[in-house]
Amino acid sequence: DPPDKLFTVHGLWPSNSTGRDPKYCNPSNVTSHM
């Protein structure tokens, strides 16, 4: 299966379509609904 179709749990970030995980979180992308 393609990586974007698999359910994975890794840290606090979702899996990216490129297969790489982000190293830094941009605060402007964080919502208050979490």
Structure description:
- This protein has 34 residues and is mostly loops.
- It is 0% helix and 0% strand.
- It contains no helices and no strands.
- This is S35-RNase.
- Residues 1-34 are annotated as: Disordered.
From the structure above, extract its key features:
34 residues; little secondary structure; single chain; 0% helix
Put the structure in a nutshell.
It has no helix or strand. It is low in regular secondary structure.
Give the secondary structure arrangement, pairings included.
Blueprint (H helix, E strand, L loop, with lengths): L34
Task: Give Rg in angstroms.
Answer: 11 Å
Low-confidence region ranges: none
Structural class: little secondary structure
Largest sheet entry: none
Taken from the alpha-carbon principal axes, the silhouette is: elongated
Mean of residue pLDDT values: 61
* Spatial separation of the terminal alpha carbons: 29 Å
Count of alpha and pi helical runs: 0
Would you report the number of β strands? 0
- The share of residues in extended strands comes to under 5%
Percent of residues in helices comes to under 10%
Protein name: S35-RNase
Region (Disordered): 1-34
Keywords: Glycoprotein, Signal
Organism: Malus sieversii
